[in-house]
Design goal:
Largest sheet of chain B: 5 strands, parallel
Strand content of chain B: 25-35%
CATH superfamily of the domain at 2-91 and 150-203 in chain B: P-loop containing nucleotide triphosphate hydrolases
Radius of gyration of chain A: 18 Å
Helix content of chain A: over 70%
Oligomer: heterodimer
Number of domains of chain A: 1
CATH architecture of the domain at 2-91 and 150-203 in chain B: 3-Layer(aba) Sandwich
Distance between the termini of chain A: 26 Å
Largest interface: A-B, 23 and 28 residues
CATH class of the domain at 2-91 and 150-203 in chain B: Alpha Beta
Strand order of the largest sheet of chain B: 5-6-7-3-8
Order of helices and strands of chain B: EEEHEEHHHEHEE
Radius of gyration of chain B: 17 Å
Number of strands of chain A: 0
CATH topology of the domain at 2-91 and 150-203 in chain B: Rossmann fold
Chain lengths: 219, 209
């Protein structure tokens, strides 16, 4: 399983792997917003957490379509299915590696982008914390979308449409926890804990569902 | 150990590809499946590999193989060499083989496996640089680098030159000599000295019925 994890990271970091695509997209979103909103620093600081979250959410969706499609095209998926490891565990490891390659860079870059949005240090810290626990959920749910669309040649947008309803709660609780950290009387901890719960829930359900779908996609 | 299929039938969607297919492959022998295009050779291999559920009949591996108990599903005894080579072009040949070796049970070392298919010294090249025949040979090396007793090979010698075909036949013979099982779907002569033959077209669904 460690071998699979390392292979995924290697693939993501090589040419065509797309580890940086999400980060560049995130950068593009966050850079464009201040120009669109105008020079109102207060407004920027206020919408900052929401923009960071929206950007990170959309950036995480990029590249999800290749999660299983590449494996299917070159025949590796068949061989993965024949291994003694449970398919749900394989999906879990692949999703985790996807998050480390695309989600973690977003989390690490968020403080820099937070400065561009004129956010307070506390708000930046809260946004980074919520992104760190919230974005894995996107990879785990995304695995289900990727598994369902594995046979479609251009499934990228279909995945986004399929899983957006499922990741909206992640966005809502992520943003409300970030606001909770700076705005009284809104609380930080309850939405943050719900966010953690959502991630844990999807970490179990996503791989199970995606594994089941992949078994039947072979027909 | 022997691989037994009883009254197997396979369907793709609504269409029955073949039915009433029975075979028995004891340890140390090869089954060569022949038949015209679309007669179900690949479907049979995919059924044995567990990608397709048999529409009827049963498949089992009788007896035990070292290190694997009777509870282990059939698919986990099998190597599958399909039409695709399952190589990642961005990774080096060595990284590709090393991964499958670690993910399955380890067999020979990667260098030994590459030597056996006549490709020493390509280990550090990205798999994407290789020619079609070389990729096929690396895929064959995978069968050696990771140890599994049953080889399911689908047109294994496509894109191979004559020398490589002979080398593949020798590798199959060596695998059989160790008590392995090989099921091959092919149009070509694999050059195996003794192999069971199965013409799958006899089992096509009778249209009149």
């Amino acid at each position: 399983m460690i071998a699979l994890f390392l292979r995924e990271l290697k693939l993501a970091s090589r040419i065509g792997g797309g580890a940086l695509t999400g980060l560049l997209f995130f950068l593009a979103v966050v850079t464009v917003v201040p120009f669109g909103v105008g020079p109102d620093l207060k407004l920027l600081a206020r919408i900052g957490p929401a923009m960071l979250w929206t950007g990170a959410l959309l950036a995480s969706l990029l590249g999800l379509d290749r999660l299983f499609q590449g494996e299917r095209e070159d025949g590796s998926l068949d061989l993965l299915l024949m291994s003694e490891h449970p398919i749900a565990l394989i999906v879990f490891v692949k999703s985790l590696a996807h998050w480390v390659a695309t989600g973690l860079p977003l989390v690490l870059a968020a403080p820099v982008f937070g400065l561009m949005m004129n956010m307070e240090p506390v708000a930046i810290a809260a946004s980074v914390a919520t992104l760190a626990v919230g974005t894995p959920a996107i990879s785990f749910v995304g695995a289900v979308g990727a598994a369902v669309t594995v046979t479609l040649a251009r499934g990228g947008l279909v995945i986004a449409v399929l899983i957006l309803p499922l990741v909206i709660p992640v966005l809502i609780f992520g943003v409300s926890a970030s606001y909770g950290a700076v705005e009284d009387p809104a609380p930080f901890l309850p939405p943050f804990l719900i966010l953690c719960a959502i991630t844990l829930f999807f970490a179990v359900l996503g791989p199970l569902a995606a594994g089941h779908v992949l078994r039947h996609a072979a027909d | 150990m022997k691989l037994v299929g009883e009254k197997l039938a396979a369907a793709r969607g609504e269409r029955r590809i073949f039915e009433g297919l029975s075979f028995e492959v004891p340890a140390g022998s090869a089954l060569v499946v022949t038949g015209p295009n679309g007669s179900g050779k690949s479907t049979l291999l995919k059924t044995i590999a567990g990608f397709l559920r048999p529409a009827a009949g049963s498949l089992k591996l009788e007896g035990q193989f070292k290190g694997l108990d009777a509870e282990t599903p059939l698919a986990e005894h099998c190597h599958y060499l399909g039409h695709a080579n399952a190589l990642k072009p961005q990774l080096s040949v060595h990284e590709n083989l090393r991964f499958w070796q670690q993910f399955y049970a380890p067999g020979r070392t990667v260098d030994e496996a590459l030597d056996a298919v006549g490709l020493p010294g390509v280990g550090d090249l990205p798999a994407g640089y290789l020619s079609a025949g070389q990729k096929r040979r690396v895929a064959i090396a995978r069968l050696l680098a990771a140890a599994r007793p049953v080889w399911l090979v689908d047109e294994p010698t496509s894109a191979l030159d004559a020398a490589s075909e002979r080398r593949f036949a020798a590798l199959v013979e060596a695998h059989l000599a160790q008590g392995g099982i090989v099921v091959a779907a092919t149009h070509q002569q694999l050059g195996l000295a003794a192999a069971l033959k199965l013409d799958i077209s006899q089992f096509a669904e009778s249209r009149a019925a």
